[in-house]
C-alpha cells in the first residue's frame, strides 16, 4: 500500500532516537559557519542588558504525551510500506514526551520478516529539541535492534546548570540557565549511556564572540561510570591555543574519583609566591580525603589534609596542617628578641610590662613548626539524642595572622573547643558540655584575657505547659565546674570551682484573641563551692536564694488604612512587663560567664539585666513598650515596624557586675540610681523592594545622649548592584581603648561599608571598609575588581595590608 498525503503515525516503541543530551564537560572544534549565522541557528538573541549579552530563545515544545513510550510521527507527505522502506517528506516531525525531532526527510526501515521498524534515517535540517537543549545536524540514524544512534555535522547547546544566572529575569520561551554550546563532526552512541564525539568544541561564552573554547579530537562520555575523557584537548583563548592535554579524564556528574585537582598558584606578602597541589582521594562512598602539599616561598613546604565522613548518624570533617621549619616565623622570632620595645617594655594604660615580657617569652619558646587542627561533627543518634563537636587548635599565637582564620573564632584570638551532647523530648531537655577556649596572645596586638573553661557543664531543663487549672510548670537547672589558666603576665590566681543552680517556676498564661496576661513566679537557688580564692579574697562557699516574680501583659488592635494609594493592615501592640526581685548581696560571687546585657527593645521584657547566672539583678521595675506595624494586605509582608519603650525603676539597682572600677557596671556608676532607663527604639522600614532601613537606638533622657545605636541601610535594586552601610555606636563600649571607666574616649564608633557595583559591562568593583573611629583602628579593608560573565568569571581581591586573597 502506498499513498502521497499528509500522514500521522502513532505507535509504541520501547527505544527511540530521542534521548537527553548529556551536559558536555569538554569538547572541541569551531563550527565552519560564521559566528553570526551560528548564533542565529542556536536561537541566540542579543540583549545588551542581560548578564551574558543575550539569551537563547526556545520554540515551545508540544504538549506532553501521557505515555512516555508513545511516539507520534507526522509529515507533509510520503510513501508508506508495511514490509519495505517508507519515505516521509516535508516537515517530518517525531514527538515523544518532552522531546521533538524534525527533519526534511525520513526513511523508515522495517524487518521483512516481522514488519516491525528496524531503523530510521533523518536527512536534512535535523533538529532535536528538548527543554533547554537543542541539537542541529545534517543527518541522523537510529537502529532499533542495537539501539545505536548517530548524528553528523552537529551544532548543540544544552543547559549545564539548573540554577538561574544571577541578574537575569526569565522571559517566556527563553533559556536563562548557564548554557554550553559547540559543534562536532559526529555524535554517536553504540553502547547504553556511552556517547562519543569526534572533532568537538565546547564553550559557555556568548556564541557571537567566544573568549575561550575547548577543542578535542575525540571525546567519550560514559554516564554509567560518571566519567569522560578527551584526547588531544586544547584550550583556546581568542582562538589562540594556551594549553594542551594529550589525554584528560574528567567527571560528568556528581560521582567522585581520586586524582589531582586543579593547582592553586598565587602570591601574598605573608607567603610570597606559592603553589598548592591538592590531591583528592575517594576512599569510599561515605568518606573522602583531600591532601594538599604546597610550597610557600617565604616559609617552606606545607602539608594540609581534610578528611570528610558521612554515616547514618554522623557527618563531619577533620583538618590538619603542618609546616615545619618556617623561615619567616624564625626571622620574626629573631627580630623580636632584639626589639627594645619587647625586651625593655614600658607599662601603658592598656598593657603592663609584665604582660609584654610574658608574651615575648611565649613567642621565643614557640616552635617554628607551624600547625593547626580542626574537628567538626554533628551526630543524630536517634530522635532524642544528638551531639555536636567544634574543636579548633592553633600551634602558636601567630598562626591566624600568618595563615588566615580558617578556625572558628568566637571573638578575636579566642578559639572555641567544645563538645556537646543533647537530649530532647517533649518535656525535658538535657545538654552535657565540655567547653574551653584557646586564647592567643600575639605580642604586637591588643592583650586578650584567658576565659573560664566549663569542664563540664550539665544543663537540665523541663517544661510542662497546659496543666490543670491552666498552669504551666518549668525548671532550669545546671551544674558546672569552672577552671582557668592564668593570662600570661598576670600574677593573680582567679577562683575556680563548682556552680550548682536550680530554678523551678510556675506560670498562668491566659491568652485571648486581642489580649494576654502571663503571671509567673520562680525561685533561683545557687551554690558555689570554690578553691584558689586567696588572691581575690573570695569565700570558698557561697549560697544564694532569690525569688523572682514577674507579669507580662499586652493587647493588639488592628485597623485597615490607606496610605500612598495602597491598603495596609496597621497594628497597635502595647505591652507592659513588671518584675520584682529582692536584693541579695552578690559582691563575693566570682564572675565566671556573666556580662551586662546591652539594653535593646526586646531586653525591656527580660527579668535579668545580666547574661549568665553569676549575677541576678535586684529589680522593682515596670517595662513598657508600644509597637505598631504596617502589613501589606496584598503580599502579607511587613512594610514598617516601629517600637519604642523603656523601664520605670521603683528602686535603685544595688547588684553590679564589678565591685571596683575595673568595669563600667560598678557601685559608683550613677545610672544605677536613675528612675528611668534609656529610651529604646526600633525601626524596620522596607521602603520598596530595593531599599531597606533598620535602626536600633537607645537614648538616655537623663544625660540627653545616645547610649548606643546601630543603623543598617541597604540598597539592592537587582542581583548585580548592592550597597550596604552600617554604623554602630556604644557609649563606654570600646574594649580596645584601654579605659575602664566612663569617658568619651571609651565610646565605640564603627562604620561598615560594603558594595558590589558594576563599573561597566561585566566588570564590578567590590569592597568592604570597616573602621573604628574611636582609635582610628582599621578593622577590615577589602577591595578589588570582579569580572563576571557566563563565559569567564574571575576576581582580584586585596586585603590590607596589601595581602592578595
Summarize the entry for a quick read.
The chain has 805 residues and is mainly beta. 5% of the residues lie in helices and 55% in strands.
Give a written overview of the molecule.
There is one protein chain. With 805 residues, the protein is mainly beta. It is built from 5 helices and 49 strands. Strand 35 and strand 36 (566-581) form a beta hairpin. It is globular and about 105 Å long. Mean pLDDT is 85; it is low at 1-32, 162-173, 735-742 and 801-805.
Please estimate the helix content. under 10%
The proportion of residues in beta strands is: over 45%
- What's the total helix number? 5
Which structural class is indicated by helix and strand composition? mainly beta
Largest sheet: 31 strands, antiparallel
- CA radius of gyration is 36 Å
The average pLDDT is 85
Q: What's the total count of β strands?
A: 49
**N-end to C-end Cα span:** 75 Å
Tertiary shape: globular
Which SSEs are present, and which pair or pack?
Blueprint: E1 7-12, H1 35-41, E2 44-46, E3 54-57, E4 70-75, E5 77-79, E6 86-96, E7 99-110, E8 117-130, E9 133-143, E10 148-164, E11 174-175, E12 177-191, E13 194-202, E14 212-222, E15 227-237, E16 240-251, E17 259-260, E18 264-268, E19 272-276, E20 279-284, E21 287-296, E22 300-310, E23 314-323, H2 327-337, H3 340-343, H4 353-365, E24 370-380, E25 385-394, H5 399-403, E26 409-411, E27 414-424, E28 428-439, E29 453-464, E30 472-483, E31 496-507, E32 510-511, E33 515-531, E34 541-555, E35 557-563, E36 566-581, E37 595-596, E38 610-611, E39 619-632, E40 638-649, E41 679-686, E42 691-700, E43 705-715, E44 722-730, E45 748-760, E46 763-772, E47 777-787, E48 794-799, E49 803-804
